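Input:
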Amino acid sequence: MVRSPCCERMGLKRGPWTREEDQILVNYIKMYGHGNWRALPKLAGLLRCGKSCRLRWTNYLNPDIKRGNFTREEEQAIIQFHAALGNRWSAIAAQLPGRTDNEIKNVWHTHLKKRVHEPEDRYQASNFQQEEKKIEEYIELSRPSSSSKSSEINSDVHDHTSDSQLSSPQHSYSEISSVTPMDKGDMQVLGNIQEMDDGFWSEICSGENSGELPVMEASYGYKSSMNDDMQFWFNVFTRGEELLEF
DNA sequence: AACACACGCAACCGCGATGAG
DNA sequence: CCTCATCGCGGTTGCGTGTGT
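Output:
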């Protein structure tokens, strides 16, 4: 086999897409789907590389994409997911129907990042860093053994590579919510998060079959199951709003 | 009105993961 | 088991537009 360049530049067009190109791509995908992106431009008669076609479709032409501004709820969700997942834009996008990873990434860099780092911002009525700290404190308090390795654990919170090593709290959501009653806003956030599909939680825990999750040895010295992990992150997200009341 | 700067967004680039041969 | 094609992801760039001076 001979590897051809990833993006053959000879004779291929780059830069902004024209209406005609969009139309050709949309028509082709409507008729034949997009089984093979690399072959698609040739078959469709486009002078673009497959990568460019895929990007154009997934980020712009796909009819499932929701256009328009992000709602406050969406922005809040992005902030919370980013705090937990880091720059895993595709994972965040999977939880926001109709939004692309590229779009979310752009919104983060242009709006939300500033908001997070500028606590006086009027939209961020509460100090985000304080909120983040509270989440970390909650994570810490939630661990079965929370005394000795706190700095190590906290550093894991933002390191998505070690997500699967994080463990669970000892309290279920219902137990916690009985301590701090939720207001309507909390309920809405909870409702939104409960609508998330299970795939998200299993992705966080890198588990394929949640019914038969292996018990794993965490790097900081105690065992936890992936089911516990899912419960843990669920609690982190659902408690995000409530933590402000601490 | 003209210019400079900031912002938002679409697109590109490069790399890692995955699977086929 | 190795090589390579393909895909998907995250980081970055560049252009068009809006805003301030």
